[in-house]
Amino acid sequence: MIERLHRIGRGMFDLLRLPLSRAFASEQNPLNHLGALTVYFLWIILISGIWLLIFFRTSVSAAFDSVEYLTREQWYVGGVMRSLHRYASDAAIVTILLHVIKEFVFDRYRSVRWFNWVTGVPLIWIVFPLGISGYWLVWDELAQYVAISSAELLDRIPIFTDSMAGNFMSDDVLSDRFFTLMAFLHLIGLPIFLVFGIWLHIFRLNGPRINPPRRMMAAVMICMLVLSAVYPAVSHDAANLAMTPQVLRLDWFYLHVYPLIQIWSPGWVWVLLTGISAAMIIMPWAPAAKKMEPALVSLDFCNGCKRCVDDCPFGAVEMVPRTDGSSYTHEASVSANLCVSCGVCVGACPTATPFRTRTALVPGIDLPDRSAAAIRQSIISTAEPPSAEPRIMVFGCKDDREADRLRHAGASVITVTCMGHLPPSYLDFVLSRNHAEGILLLGCEDGNCNYRLGAEWTEQRVARERDPRLRKRTDTARIALGWQAPWSDYGDALAALEAFRATLREKLSRDESAVL
Amino acid sequence: MKLFREVITYVVFAGLVGLLSVWPRYEIVDRKEAVISLTFSHAGQRIGECHTFTQEELNKLPPNMRKPADCPRERHPVRVLLRSADRVLHEEVLAPSGIWSDGKANIYRRIIVSAGSHVLYVGMNDSGDYGGFDYEATATIDIEPGRNVVVRFNEQLQQFSIY
Fold first, then answer.
1. Is A290 inside a domain boundary?
2. Least CB–CB distance from A163: residue in B13, B39, B163
3. Cα separation of B23 and A256, whole Å?
4. d(CA A504, CA A215)
5. What integer is the mean pLDDT of A107-135?
6. Which residues from B are below 8 Å from A174, CB to CB?
7. Which of A78, A138, A353, B153 could pair with A70 as two cysteines, CB 3.0-4.6 Å apart?
8. Contact (CB<8Å) A23/B16
């Protein structure tokens, strides 16, 4: 049932990703940086907000005028800053929404990833009040509507002895202290919780990306500036509690629920909001994902080199004092609660070498469900005998069904858990032992790795920039990195294979001529 | 070509953000309508009489628990009725707040009415006797379109005000 929902969701997500994947190179595709883009929008909001704060006056009579001054008199800076503040806040809702949908449809919220998912729910509960409280501060007709409707909503919580909405019935009743309270919430209280919440959301990740690529940052900034210049944010008429606002330009990103307060009732809106939140919180266990066995440390072969700790995308491996009396000072220790069984630690382990023959192939750290020895055996058993056509061995991620289909296109296909699972010595093994003439690594593109960092680490290892490095004798021209979006279809994988086959054929022919 | 597509994507994104931040417009009330806001926080009377302790009863109590009288905490619900001429605009029995039902009864209701002249009547009962009203007020008021007429109970004066 849940897999079907994921599949349907991926189909719908395709409607967006297809045009975007045509428009952008993988590293510049905003869909690959949704979390980082949200943080970037928060930076824009923070900086523009500081400018607005300098000129904002926190009183009933002066709040509206100070915002009008910024918008009309100081339009060249204050007006632009106000519009940036507004539109970056709206854009953050778009990226948050897409981030949530993407993590759901690609099933990246269950198993040990429940923590990142669940800690994201309170973040949504902070972001919306943060945006909504900003609308109160303008104190125009929209603010009046938002203030009264919010008070109606809060009145439904049975902890207040007096009706809060009743405080907005006349200008005489409303005091400046109300603006001081709102300013505190908007400027200090909620942002502090937001920063703490973001830290909690990502603190289990190793090397989280909180900044999008610079080119994307520049493009987004230009985009927001142009929007601010062409269509600056403006206020409604000043709030007048003796009158009721009749027609409003609602910001639907933040205020979409507000009409329901009148159409349904505040109570039903609470049922809706808490119901959605509760459903999101229990989703990682409804049903729980099947968990693979976590990585296993074999102390006989672990020399405490710490590479697995550096490369683990989820911080599941740590170094602890040696427990076996060995002369090495430390050993790797895996936290089963954090391990997603991606195998990136095995790819980082220098003892995971297929050339070992005198003893059994047991690396310092290994995946019980897809061991280093099993991968070597797959290479040997899958290799085709030499022929006129160059033989290509494809390594694909286990979640990439399209790689598996390349068997029908004349390639040997071996699956690993994640491309980062494959130690570079295996590439040397395939080529030097003549199991194939070329290797195609068909993994998920950077930013879309099902387990995080697999593509990045593999690229660096093959480029000999990261330990364990590919041996110098290995001809990197015979290795192709075919990074794909996890949603790629068979055509993309086949095209990558055919393109590599053509290049390889040409290279081998050139090499042969050179020898002759 | 790739750059052109990127630019188009960002333009569409900006357009979407700009558009949904103000559109579609939301009509709260029709241009020929107005709003009556009925709001107050009022505690109903206690549900029973206070029991004054006799000296004999006080002597039986531990010294730290002796007090002149024992009053029940629970309060009566508050019934409110708002009419325009003969048309009932709102009628509700409000439960007291608090887990012991000893707090104030709160109400805030927005009632949309057509603009024009209205004879407003509001009645409130806080004694639990629903045969009549303990507090009443009537006012003839000419309501212009978009006006927010407030009907609230003034706790200090113990009377309704309509303005």
1. no
2. B39
3. 11
4. 33
5. 95
6. none
7. A78
8. no
Label residues A456-467 b or e (16+ Cβ within 10 Å = b): bbbbbbbeeebe
Q: Which two tokens mark A382? A: 């899958």
Q: Which strand (E) or helix (H) includes residue A295?
A: none
Kindly state the helix (H) or strand (E) to which residue A446 belongs, with its residue range.
Answer: none
Closest chain B residue to the Cα of A248, Cα to Cα:
B26
Say if residue B83 is exposed, middle or buried (CB neighbours under 10 Å; 0-12, 13-18, 19+): middle
Domain range list for chain B: 2-162
Nearest CA in chain B to A88: B17
Select from B27, B108, B147 the Cβ nearest to the Cβ of A247. B27
User: A–B: how many Cβ contacts below 8 A?
Assistant: 134
Task: Print the domain residue range for A166.
Answer: 28-244+256-285
ipTM over 0.90? The verdict is: no
Out of B2, B40, B148, whose CB is closest to A244?
A: B148
Question: According to the model, what pLDDT value does residue B125 have?
Answer: 95
Identify whether the C-beta of residue A84 lies closer than 8 Å to the C-beta of residue A40: no
Mean pLDDT along residues A480-509:
82
Q: Tell me the three-class secondary structure of A120-183, residue by residue.
A: HHHHHHHHHHHHHHHHHHHCEHHHHHHHHHHHHHHHCCCCCCCCCHHHHCCCCCCCHHHHHHHH
pLDDT digits (tens, 9 = 90+) for B76-88: 999 999 999 989 9
Same domain (yes/no): A390, A477:
yes
- The nearest CA of chain A is from the CA of B57 a distance in Å of 34
Task: Tell if the CB–CB gap between A249 and B25 is shorter than 8 Å.
Answer: yes
User: Side-chain half-sphere of A198: how many Cα atoms within 13 Å?
Assistant: 17
> Identity (one letter) of the amino acid at B59?
N
- Whether residue A8 lies inside any domain: the answer is no
Task: Examine residue A17 and state whether it is found in any structural domain, yes or no.
Answer: no
A2-23 and A80-105 helices cross at what angle (nearest 10)?
130
On whether the CB atoms of residues A248 and A145 are closer than 8 A, the answer is yes
Total domains present in chain A: 2
Q: Calculate how close chain A gets to B149, using CA atoms only, in Å.
A: 7
CA-atom Rg of chain A in angstroms: 28
- Nearest residue of chain B to residue A227 (CA atoms): B14
CA-wise closest residue to A246 among A139, A145, A143: A145
Arithmetic mean of pLDDT, B27-54: 92
